[in-house]
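Continuing the series of single-chain predictions for the mutant panel. This is the parent chain; the variants come on the following pages.
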Amino acid sequence: MSGTPDYPFRNPTALEPPEEWANLRESHPVAPIRLASGDEALLLTRYDDVKQVLSDPRFTRHLDAANAARTTTNASGGPFAQRKSGMAASVGEGHQRWRRLVGRAFTAKRVAAMVPRMTAMSEQLIDAMVAQGPPADLVSGLGFPLPVWVICDLLGVPNEDRFRFAYWSDTLMNLSKYEQKEIDAAQAEFNEYFAAHIAAKQAQPGDDLISDLLALVEEDDLMTEAVVLGTGQSLLVAGHETTANMIGKMVAMLLADRRQWERLLADPSLVRSAVEETLRFDANPGFGMPRYITEELEVGGTTLPPGTTVVCSMASANRDGQAFEDADDLDVSRSPNAHLSFGAGPYSCVGQALARTELQTVLSVLLRRLPSLELAVPARELARREGLLVGGLQQVPVRW
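Parent structure:
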């Protein structure tokens, strides 16, 4: 269809939402789009529709079906493709069993116990920025190093290896940036590295998530060594890429409207709600969440035939005025805030407690250590990262 728009849409600036979101929510909430692969899918932009689809197990993650739309330009399908090992292969009841098993190792107690170390690492990274002097890039100085360190700590990965993960993560999150040959080579290296890491943990277990998951191999036939490998890799990529990008976007949003930063300085108890609000307000989150159906279903008054691929725009849903009062305003005290940034239903983000804890920790430390922090360039000049399924900013220049 010649009038089908290319997706993802372009943002006017890195912190402003695409104009298409509001237009589609108003007049065409189930809209055809053309993906980077050239295939067509349907985009959902309203809150109720997105929540319905993400919560309905009949909308599956079987995106390797013959008639499913390919989300990326590379043949391997990117992170949404099904794999024969790891958590991506678990759907339905198998996925719920996997979540219960991972939940036994990925506990709130473990996340809470990491806060002092997160705080100390944030302090150390800010010390380095201060020593260098302004202006500094918050993305390279703090946004990316901290989540990589945190996820390496959680998975028991040696800290000196953390610099290897950025490229591996980018290739897995490819939308149109890398060729298939580059992706295959990077993922082969990643698989080899992580298989060796698992073998080392089998020989000498430690106080980390991988060791705990390996201990479950003897208890449950679902938690095989291959699933441990896929789980660890997925958590490493998700824990690194999404949170790293969100730190830069969160701080940029709060500094772009200085009144919000000042409110937090005056009342640090708002940090928790501020994190939730920046997650809701994020205009540059990336691709969204695709789903595939094998039976006829109705969404938003539209009947979808079997074989349809839909893309859920959680970010557009988070700007839906039917779900949020003054949805286009950033309000750090907003409560309640039932945003969909971590998804909904049986496939919601398993690492969301860790992500929230990291964002709250780093924001608290920044407010305390650098209260005079401000953007060193106009917000409209901030540049997006391109070609990846996760949205982010190339740099966030700041001064204090």
